[in-house]
Design goal:
Chain A has 272 residues and is of the alpha/beta class. Chain A contains 8 helices and 16 strands. Chain A is globular, with a radius of gyration of 18 Å. Helices cover 33% and strands 24% of the residues of chain B. Chain B is built from 14 helices and 17 strands. In chain B, the strands form 4 sheets. An 8-stranded mixed β-sheet of chain B has the order 3-2-8-10-11-12-1-13, with helices on both faces. Classes of the chains: A alpha/beta (272), B alpha+beta (394). Chains A and B meet through strand 1, strand 2, strand 7 and strand 15 of A and strand 6, strand 7, strand 9, strand 14 and strand 16 of B.
């Protein structure tokens, strides 16, 4: 048991743009740091005087050895985090929540499916697999975005081609786009899948995850071989504020990463 | 010390408990104050029985009862002069243990960088006098939520560990009470320091009192008591047993957890949504509703910021805000969230029901929505549907 404590101060070691409205921020502790994060877990990041938001870790080790988070400017807090510059200080707490089940995935084919900024919590999985490439079977990374300009980690995705099967699709192509067009599930239709030895990790908008998970089950993947990363309003991350409920689940505690077999029925209930 | 007092110092020598009169109650408040407790108990204020700091037992609501109905609360004068012959008022002990506004920590921009400091308040040690068995359970429920998981809320833990719980068993249930259905009363469950049962009959006005902790025993030893006589014990037990038969409300005889999980698409949610004002009163008066939001403020220098925790309600649209819109936009979705959480998913999250049957949500709902009536309607719906299964669409 842990007593809830204030966040720890972390210094911004570097920031860089991912898209027009999304930046990555690398954070290093100014004193002693938090326990290590696992892929899929999240931190609460506090912007001084503005507030705190949950953000999944998007790389366990950045260029300066710090934790990397990828933030899209949506609300007041994320906009403040978007504006961070090297040398600024934030408060950080965590690690919170469940991570992607990489132990179960050892020796298995791994299917990583991301929609939009949903690639951020999945990127540490790709890093982990590429570091121990022999420890896994086939690796496929399917990425969807609204437009080519909304694709995050674009150069890095290119670098995964080779050790991984990589496919990218956009809803609305722009000039110069020669790749696939359509929702991310269309990439799934063309994939050579070995369902009995594949584990799928899915993150993106809820509607995308619902369709993708259903598509995977149609392709004979057992629901307990599919994990999704869910999101709800969250004020505390310690199971006390009640905001992140999804039916029986407290997503800060029982999630964000959950087996599709546990939530398939919940995702069908409107306004749950 | 007299020989009588020696008997009292060891509850083991008085396994049947002790008896004291109204003078004992007066002494109890004095002794608690002398031990350094802030005594909080029921008292009449502004036409209701509130929970407030008591300076003496004279402030207890002697001779006051209450008339409760859906959306209605009235004081009623009693002829017996009883101090605890009233069912739940608008407050529970929640505002004292889990206050509506709490500063959690501060942040300061200094020359040495950002300094984050936890608030370390020294809360007063409270003695809660007159905790009803349903509210005793409610405290245990909040204990599990706020200190029983992977993370402990240090503020709650500090206030709770200092609190002395003096339970008074229920002999006068209200018309909106259903503790028997929720198995929380009218007799006291475990967790109290002292428990009393009030008896007013031809033999006088007295209290059967027992200890549940060493601290309770220490207080009890200082009170003017005598060993409990069989007549008082019998009258006390009969009063509690009689209360169990006079519950104003009952929950349907069903597994409420299953009932909630199986009726998420029931048309009854639209019906109750047509009446619910989504004001959140039920969540404010509920002794177990624990939800909070946070507020971050800065002072005028811009170098000092504070994190505050405030009560929140699942009836508020902002509660489920996600990416620019609420997940639960309709009042149907919000009422269903509250009730299914309270009676159903609370088990999944915290291992018990979130409802203790105190009836406050019924009384303080401005339109008189009754959780027992809603549960019964859902139960009826599942039963009316069962014979139709397999008959196909009309």
């Amino acid at each position: 048991m842990t007593t809830v404590a204030p966040p720890l101060p972390y210094r911004v070691a570097g920031t860089w743009a991912e898209t027009a409205d999304t930046r990555s921020v690398e954070l290093v502790p100014t004193g002693h740091g938090l326990p290590p994060f696992a892929p899929g877990q999240f931190a609460m990041i506090y912007a001084f005087g503005v507030g705190e938001v949950p953000v999944s870790v998007s790389a366990l080790r950045g260029p300066h050895g710090g934790l990397v988070h990828t933030v899209r400017a949506v609300g007041a807090v994320s906009a403040a985090l978007y504006r961070l510059r090297p040398g600024d200080t934030v408060g950080l707490s965590g690690p919170y929540g469940t991570g992607w089940d990489l132990a179960e995935a050892a020796g298995q084919d791994l299917l990583v499916i991301a929609g939009g900024i949903g690639l951020a919590p999945l990127r540490p999985v790709v890093h982990a697999v590429l570091e121990r490439r022999h420890g896994y079977g086939r690796l496929a990374v399917l990425v969807g975005a609204r437009t080519p300009a909304d694709l995050i980690y674009r150069e890095e995705i290119d670098s995964w081609c080779g050790p991984a099967h990589v496919a990218v699709t956009v809803d609305r192509p722009g000039p110069g786009w020669r790749g696939a067009v359509g929702v991310v599930t269309t990439l799934l239709d063309r994939l050579d899948l070995r369902p009995e030895r594949t584990r799928a990790l899915v993150c993106g908008p809820e509607v995308m995850m619902r369709h993708t998970a259903r598509g995977l089950v149609t392709r004979r993947l057992a629901p307990d071989r599919v994990q999704v990363s869910l999101e709800r309003n969250m004020r505390c991350a310690t199971g006390h504020c009640g905001h992140c409920q999804l039916g029986p689940l407290l997503l800060c505690r029982d999630g964000p990463v959950v087996g599709y077999d546990r939530v398939a029925h919940l995702l069908l209930v409107r306004e749950l | 010390m007299t020989a009588d007092a020696d008997v009292n110092t060891s509850p083991a020598l008085a396994p049947d408990g002790l008896v004291m009169g109204k003078d004992g109650l007066a002494a109890l408040v004095d002794v608690l104050i002398r031990h350094g407790f802030t005594v909080v108990g029921p008292t009449v204020r502004d036409g209701v029985i509130v929970l407030a700091e008591l300076r003496s037992a004279d402030e207890l609501p002697y001779g006051w009862g209450v008339e409760l109905e859906a959306g209605r609360y009235r004081l009623r004068e009693r002829t017996d002069g009883a101090a605890f012959a009233h069912a739940a008022g608008p407050q529970s002990w929640k505002p004292f243990l889990h206050p509506p506004r709490v500063r959690q920590w501060s942040a300061d921009r200094t020359e040495d960088g950002l300094v984050l400091t936890a608030d370390q308040p020294a809360p007063p040690r409270c003695a809660f006098l007159g905790v009803r068995p349903c509210d005793l359970r409610a405290i245990a429920v909040q204990d599990r939520v706020l200190t029983g998981g992977a993370y402990r809320d240090p503020g709650y833990e500090g206030r709770r560990s200092g609190a002395l719980l003096i339970v008074v068993e229920c002999t006068e249930p209200g018309a909106t009470c259903f503790c028997v259905s929720m198995d929380t009363g009218p007799a006291a469950g475990p967790g109290y320091d002292l428990v009393m049962t009030e008896v007013v009959d031809e033999y006088g006005h007295r209290f059967w009192i027992r200890s549940g902790s060493p601290e309770g025993s220490a207080i009890l030893a200082e009170l003017p008591t005598r060993p409990a006589d069989p007549e008082t014990r019998e009258a006390a037990r009969a009063g509690v047993a009689d209360a169990a038969d006079r519950m104003g409300r009952t929950m349907p005889e069903a597994d409420l957890r299953e009932l909630m999980a199986g009726t998420l698409d029931a048309p009854r949610w639209d019906d109750v949504a047509g009446r619910c004002l989504t004001c959140g009163n039920c969540t404010m008066v509920c002794p177990t509703c624990f939800c909070t939001t946070t507020e971050d403020v800065t002072d005028l220098t811009g170098d000092h910021a504070e994190r505050w925790q405030l009560w929140d309600s699942c009836f508020d649209l902002d509660f489920s805000q996600l990416h620019g819109g609420p997940v639960r936009a309709s009042s149907r979705g919000r009422y269903r969230q509250w009730m299914t959480h309270k009676l159903g998913t609370w088990y999944d999250q915290f291992g018990s029901s979130g409802c203790v049957g105190c009836g406050r949500c019924i009384v303080w709902c401005p339109v008189g929505i009754d959780i027992t009536e809603e549960a019964a309607a859902l139960h009826d719906w599942t039963h009316s549907r069962a014979p139709d299964e397999g008959s196909g669409p009309p």
